[in-house]
Amino acid sequence: MITVLAGENSYEIHEALQALVRDFAGRPERIDGATLELRQLPDLLMGGTLFAEDRLVIIRGITENTALKTQLSDWLDRVDDSIHLVLIDEKLDKRTVLYKDLKKKANLREFAQWTERDTGTAVQWVQKRAPSLDRSTADHLVRRVGLDQWQLASALEILAQVDPVTAQSIDEHIEPNRTENVFQLFEFAMEGKSARIFDMLRTLELSEDPYGLFALLSSQAFQLAAVGLAEPSDTPTKDAGIHPFVAGKLEKHARRLGPRGVLHILEIFADADADLKRSRGEPWLVIEKSLLEIAQ
Protein backbone atom coordinates (compact mmCIF):
# COMPACT_ATOMS: atom_id res chain seq x y z
CA MET A 1 0.00 0.00 0.00
CA ILE A 2 1.23 3.48 -0.85
CA THR A 3 0.02 6.69 0.80
CA VAL A 4 1.14 10.15 -0.28
CA LEU A 5 0.78 13.17 2.04
CA ALA A 6 1.41 16.26 -0.04
CA GLY A 7 0.93 20.01 0.20
CA GLU A 8 2.12 23.03 2.17
CA ASN A 9 -0.12 22.53 5.22
CA SER A 10 2.48 20.93 7.46
CA TYR A 11 0.10 20.73 10.41
CA GLU A 12 -2.48 18.63 8.56
CA ILE A 13 0.30 16.43 7.17
CA HIS A 14 1.68 15.95 10.68
CA GLU A 15 -1.76 14.98 12.02
CA ALA A 16 -2.40 12.56 9.14
CA LEU A 17 1.00 10.92 9.64
CA GLN A 18 0.46 10.59 13.40
CA ALA A 19 -2.82 8.79 12.72
CA LEU A 20 -1.06 6.31 10.43
CA VAL A 21 1.68 5.70 13.00
CA ARG A 22 -0.90 5.13 15.75
CA ASP A 23 -2.68 2.54 13.61
CA PHE A 24 0.56 0.64 12.97
CA ALA A 25 1.47 -1.96 15.59
CA GLY A 26 5.22 -1.88 15.03
CA ARG A 27 7.96 0.72 14.84
CA PRO A 28 7.91 2.89 11.70
CA GLU A 29 11.03 3.33 9.58
CA ARG A 30 11.69 7.02 8.87
CA ILE A 31 13.85 7.86 5.85
CA ASP A 32 15.22 11.21 4.69
CA GLY A 33 14.37 11.33 1.00
CA ALA A 34 17.01 13.97 0.30
CA THR A 35 19.84 11.55 1.16
CA LEU A 36 18.23 8.28 0.03
CA GLU A 37 20.19 6.40 -2.63
CA LEU A 38 18.57 4.31 -5.37
CA ARG A 39 20.55 1.21 -4.34
CA GLN A 40 18.69 1.29 -1.00
CA LEU A 41 15.23 0.94 -2.58
CA PRO A 42 15.20 -2.88 -2.91
CA ASP A 43 15.78 -3.33 0.82
CA LEU A 44 13.24 -0.66 1.67
CA LEU A 45 10.41 -1.64 -0.67
CA MET A 46 10.68 -5.35 -1.41
CA GLY A 47 9.69 -7.36 1.65
CA GLY A 48 9.90 -7.76 5.39
CA THR A 49 12.90 -7.95 7.66
CA LEU A 50 14.09 -10.51 10.17
CA PHE A 51 12.38 -8.52 12.91
CA ALA A 52 8.98 -7.67 11.37
CA GLU A 53 6.73 -9.01 8.65
CA ASP A 54 4.68 -5.83 8.26
CA ARG A 55 6.52 -2.53 7.85
CA LEU A 56 5.64 1.14 7.77
CA VAL A 57 8.23 2.97 5.69
CA ILE A 58 8.04 6.79 5.76
CA ILE A 59 10.07 8.73 3.22
CA ARG A 60 10.03 12.52 3.55
CA GLY A 61 11.13 15.05 0.92
CA ILE A 62 11.28 12.92 -2.21
CA THR A 63 11.39 15.93 -4.57
CA GLU A 64 14.63 17.12 -2.94
CA ASN A 65 16.38 14.10 -4.47
CA THR A 66 16.67 14.39 -8.27
CA ALA A 67 17.60 10.75 -8.85
CA LEU A 68 14.83 9.47 -6.63
CA LYS A 69 12.28 11.84 -8.15
CA THR A 70 12.96 10.57 -11.66
CA GLN A 71 13.25 6.85 -10.82
CA LEU A 72 10.63 6.33 -8.13
CA SER A 73 7.80 5.79 -10.62
CA ASP A 74 9.49 2.56 -11.74
CA TRP A 75 9.30 1.22 -8.19
CA LEU A 76 5.65 1.94 -7.39
CA ASP A 77 4.42 -1.42 -8.71
CA ARG A 78 7.19 -3.27 -6.88
CA VAL A 79 6.29 -2.26 -3.33
CA ASP A 80 5.69 -5.47 -1.38
CA ASP A 81 2.19 -6.10 0.00
CA SER A 82 3.62 -6.32 3.51
CA ILE A 83 4.86 -2.72 3.31
CA HIS A 84 2.87 0.45 3.83
CA LEU A 85 4.94 3.10 2.05
CA VAL A 86 4.21 6.68 3.07
CA LEU A 87 5.67 9.47 0.94
CA ILE A 88 5.63 13.01 2.36
CA ASP A 89 6.40 16.08 0.30
CA GLU A 90 5.24 19.67 0.62
CA LYS A 91 6.26 20.62 -2.93
CA LEU A 92 5.05 17.76 -5.11
CA ASP A 93 4.78 19.21 -8.62
CA LYS A 94 1.48 18.32 -10.30
CA ARG A 95 3.08 18.67 -13.73
CA THR A 96 5.51 15.81 -13.25
CA VAL A 97 5.22 12.19 -14.36
CA LEU A 98 5.79 11.12 -10.76
CA TYR A 99 2.74 13.05 -9.55
CA LYS A 100 0.54 11.52 -12.25
CA ASP A 101 1.79 8.02 -11.43
CA LEU A 102 1.23 8.55 -7.72
CA LYS A 103 -2.28 9.78 -8.38
CA LYS A 104 -3.01 6.54 -10.25
CA LYS A 105 -1.26 4.06 -7.98
CA ALA A 106 -1.34 5.57 -4.49
CA ASN A 107 -3.74 7.03 -1.97
CA LEU A 108 -2.83 10.65 -2.68
CA ARG A 109 -3.94 13.09 0.01
CA GLU A 110 -3.26 16.78 -0.55
CA PHE A 111 -3.31 19.39 2.19
CA ALA A 112 -3.40 23.02 1.09
CA GLN A 113 -2.49 25.92 3.35
CA TRP A 114 -5.54 27.80 4.59
CA THR A 115 -6.29 31.20 3.05
CA GLU A 116 -8.81 33.92 3.91
CA ARG A 117 -11.44 31.92 2.03
CA ASP A 118 -11.02 29.13 4.59
CA THR A 119 -11.81 31.30 7.60
CA GLY A 120 -15.13 29.53 8.15
CA THR A 121 -13.35 26.18 8.02
CA ALA A 122 -10.84 27.44 10.59
CA VAL A 123 -13.61 28.55 12.94
CA GLN A 124 -15.28 25.14 12.66
CA TRP A 125 -11.92 23.45 13.31
CA VAL A 126 -11.39 25.54 16.45
CA GLN A 127 -14.87 24.68 17.72
CA LYS A 128 -14.24 20.99 17.07
CA ARG A 129 -11.02 21.16 19.07
CA ALA A 130 -12.63 23.29 21.80
CA PRO A 131 -16.38 22.50 21.86
CA SER A 132 -16.96 24.91 24.77
CA LEU A 133 -16.29 27.91 22.50
CA ASP A 134 -19.28 29.46 20.78
CA ARG A 135 -18.92 30.54 17.17
CA SER A 136 -18.40 34.21 18.02
CA THR A 137 -15.54 33.45 20.41
CA ALA A 138 -13.97 30.94 18.01
CA ASP A 139 -14.19 33.52 15.22
CA HIS A 140 -12.48 36.10 17.45
CA LEU A 141 -9.66 33.64 18.16
CA VAL A 142 -9.13 32.95 14.45
CA ARG A 143 -8.98 36.68 13.70
CA ARG A 144 -6.57 37.17 16.59
CA VAL A 145 -4.23 34.30 15.72
CA GLY A 146 -4.64 33.94 11.96
CA LEU A 147 -5.01 30.83 9.84
CA ASP A 148 -1.82 29.00 10.74
CA GLN A 149 -2.99 25.76 12.38
CA TRP A 150 0.18 25.33 14.42
CA GLN A 151 -0.40 28.72 16.03
CA LEU A 152 -4.11 28.05 16.50
CA ALA A 153 -3.33 24.73 18.20
CA SER A 154 -0.79 26.47 20.45
CA ALA A 155 -3.35 29.16 21.33
CA LEU A 156 -5.92 26.50 22.23
CA GLU A 157 -3.38 24.85 24.57
CA ILE A 158 -2.93 28.18 26.35
CA LEU A 159 -6.66 28.82 26.53
CA ALA A 160 -7.26 25.35 27.99
CA GLN A 161 -5.91 26.86 31.24
CA VAL A 162 -8.23 29.89 31.04
CA ASP A 163 -11.77 30.00 32.42
CA PRO A 164 -13.90 31.43 31.04
CA VAL A 165 -12.65 31.87 27.48
CA THR A 166 -14.03 35.12 26.13
CA ALA A 167 -12.95 37.67 23.55
CA GLN A 168 -11.42 39.69 26.36
CA SER A 169 -9.50 36.76 27.87
CA ILE A 170 -8.26 35.81 24.39
CA ASP A 171 -6.87 39.33 23.93
CA GLU A 172 -5.22 39.12 27.37
CA HIS A 173 -3.49 35.76 26.84
CA ILE A 174 -2.91 35.44 23.07
CA GLU A 175 -0.57 37.62 21.05
CA PRO A 176 -2.11 39.04 17.85
CA ASN A 177 -0.81 37.81 14.51
CA ARG A 178 0.97 40.22 12.22
CA THR A 179 -2.04 40.61 9.90
CA GLU A 180 -4.16 41.89 12.77
CA ASN A 181 -1.34 44.22 13.84
CA VAL A 182 -1.12 45.57 10.31
CA PHE A 183 -4.88 46.04 10.07
CA GLN A 184 -4.81 48.00 13.32
CA LEU A 185 -1.98 50.15 11.94
CA PHE A 186 -3.98 50.76 8.76
CA GLU A 187 -7.02 51.70 10.87
CA PHE A 188 -4.94 54.19 12.87
CA ALA A 189 -4.03 55.87 9.59
CA MET A 190 -7.63 56.01 8.36
CA GLU A 191 -8.74 57.38 11.75
CA GLY A 192 -6.08 60.09 11.75
CA LYS A 193 -4.26 58.77 14.84
CA SER A 194 -0.75 59.95 14.01
CA ALA A 195 0.69 59.40 17.48
CA ARG A 196 -0.49 55.78 17.50
CA ILE A 197 1.13 55.28 14.07
CA PHE A 198 4.49 56.51 15.42
CA ASP A 199 4.30 54.24 18.47
CA MET A 200 3.23 51.13 16.56
CA LEU A 201 5.84 51.57 13.83
CA ARG A 202 8.61 51.87 16.43
CA THR A 203 7.48 48.55 17.89
CA LEU A 204 7.11 46.81 14.53
CA GLU A 205 10.57 47.95 13.44
CA LEU A 206 12.03 45.64 16.07
CA SER A 207 10.64 42.46 14.52
CA GLU A 208 9.21 43.08 11.05
CA ASP A 209 10.69 43.31 7.58
CA PRO A 210 9.57 46.67 6.11
CA TYR A 211 8.92 45.23 2.66
CA GLY A 212 6.78 42.44 4.07
CA LEU A 213 4.91 44.93 6.23
CA PHE A 214 4.29 47.20 3.26
CA ALA A 215 2.94 44.26 1.25
CA LEU A 216 0.44 43.53 4.02
CA LEU A 217 -0.55 47.21 4.23
CA SER A 218 -1.03 47.29 0.47
CA SER A 219 -3.31 44.27 0.67
CA GLN A 220 -5.39 46.14 3.26
CA ALA A 221 -5.64 49.10 0.89
CA PHE A 222 -6.73 46.75 -1.90
CA GLN A 223 -9.41 45.26 0.35
CA LEU A 224 -10.60 48.75 1.27
CA ALA A 225 -10.96 49.51 -2.44
CA ALA A 226 -12.72 46.20 -3.10
CA VAL A 227 -15.28 47.06 -0.42
CA GLY A 228 -15.52 50.82 -0.94
CA LEU A 229 -15.76 50.78 -4.74
CA ALA A 230 -17.94 47.70 -5.04
CA GLU A 231 -21.08 47.79 -7.17
CA PRO A 232 -24.38 46.68 -5.60
CA SER A 233 -24.12 43.34 -7.41
CA ASP A 234 -20.55 42.69 -6.19
CA THR A 235 -19.70 40.43 -3.24
CA PRO A 236 -16.26 41.52 -1.94
CA THR A 237 -16.18 38.88 0.80
CA LYS A 238 -16.29 36.18 -1.88
CA ASP A 239 -14.68 37.93 -4.84
CA ALA A 240 -11.68 39.24 -2.88
CA GLY A 241 -11.67 36.60 -0.14
CA ILE A 242 -12.23 39.17 2.64
CA HIS A 243 -13.37 37.98 6.04
CA PRO A 244 -16.91 39.32 6.73
CA PHE A 245 -15.79 40.95 9.99
CA VAL A 246 -12.93 42.75 8.24
CA ALA A 247 -15.21 43.69 5.34
CA GLY A 248 -17.69 45.22 7.80
CA LYS A 249 -15.01 47.38 9.43
CA LEU A 250 -13.59 48.45 6.07
CA GLU A 251 -17.06 49.32 4.81
CA LYS A 252 -17.53 51.80 7.66
CA HIS A 253 -14.24 53.51 6.79
CA ALA A 254 -15.07 53.46 3.07
CA ARG A 255 -18.45 55.15 3.65
CA ARG A 256 -16.78 57.89 5.66
CA LEU A 257 -13.95 58.36 3.16
CA GLY A 258 -16.10 58.16 0.04
CA PRO A 259 -14.87 56.89 -3.35
CA ARG A 260 -12.45 59.82 -3.76
CA GLY A 261 -10.91 59.16 -0.36
CA VAL A 262 -10.50 55.46 -1.10
CA LEU A 263 -8.87 56.21 -4.45
CA HIS A 264 -6.56 58.73 -2.78
CA ILE A 265 -5.33 56.03 -0.40
CA LEU A 266 -4.63 53.76 -3.37
CA GLU A 267 -2.63 56.56 -5.00
CA ILE A 268 -0.58 57.03 -1.83
CA PHE A 269 0.28 53.33 -1.75
CA ALA A 270 1.08 53.33 -5.47
CA ASP A 271 3.52 56.21 -4.96
CA ALA A 272 5.06 54.50 -1.94
CA ASP A 273 5.46 51.28 -3.91
CA ALA A 274 7.28 53.17 -6.66
CA ASP A 275 9.54 54.86 -4.08
CA LEU A 276 10.44 51.51 -2.51
CA LYS A 277 11.17 49.87 -5.84
CA ARG A 278 13.42 52.74 -6.87
CA SER A 279 15.07 53.05 -3.43
CA ARG A 280 13.94 56.66 -3.07
CA GLY A 281 14.10 56.55 0.69
CA GLU A 282 14.69 54.40 3.75
CA PRO A 283 11.85 51.82 3.72
CA TRP A 284 10.51 52.55 7.21
CA LEU A 285 10.44 56.27 6.47
CA VAL A 286 8.54 55.66 3.22
CA ILE A 287 5.95 53.59 5.12
CA GLU A 288 5.69 56.20 7.87
CA LYS A 289 5.29 59.06 5.39
CA SER A 290 2.54 57.18 3.54
CA LEU A 291 0.54 56.36 6.68
CA LEU A 292 0.85 59.92 8.01
CA GLU A 293 -0.32 61.27 4.65
CA ILE A 294 -3.41 59.06 4.94
CA ALA A 295 -3.92 60.19 8.54
CA GLN A 296 -3.95 63.82 7.47
List the uncertain runs. Answer: none
How many beta-strand runs?
5
CATH architecture of the largest domain: Up-down Bundle
Structural class: alpha/beta
Distance between the termini: 64 Å
The biggest sheet amounts to: 5 strands, parallel
Percentage of residues assigned to helices: 55-70%
Assigned CATH class of the largest domain: Mainly Alpha
User: What's the total helix number?
Assistant: 14
Strand content: 5-15%
What is the C-alpha radius of gyration, as a whole number of Å? 25 Å
Please tell me what the overall shape is: elongated
**Mean pLDDT, as a whole number?**
89
The tally of structural domains comes to 3
CATH topology of the largest domain: Zinc Finger, Delta Prime, domain 3
Keywords:
single chain; 296 residues; alpha/beta; Rossmann fold; Zinc Finger, Delta Prime, domain 3; 3 domains; 5-stranded parallel beta sheet; 14 helices; 5 strands; 57% helix
List the helices and strands and how they pair.
Blueprint: E1 2-6, H1 10-23, E2 29-32, H2 41-45, E3 55-60, H3 66-71, E4 83-89, H4 97-105, E5 107-110, H5 119-129, H6 135-145, H7 149-159, H8 167-173, H9 178-190, H10 194-204, H11 210-228, H12 236-239, H13 244-277, H14 283-295
Parallel strand pairs: 1-4, 1-5, 2-3, 3-4
Q: Summed up, what is this model?
A:
With 296 residues, the chain is α/β, with parallel strands linked by helices. The chain has helices spanning 10-23, 41-45, 66-71, 97-105, 119-129, 135-145, 149-159, 167-173, 178-190, 194-204, 210-228, 236-239, 244-277, 283-295, and strands spanning 2-6, 29-32, 55-60, 83-89, 107-110. It has three domains: 2-110, 3-Layer(aba) Sandwich (Rossmann fold); 123-173, no CATH class; 178-295, Zinc Finger, Delta Prime, domain 3, CATH 1.20.272.
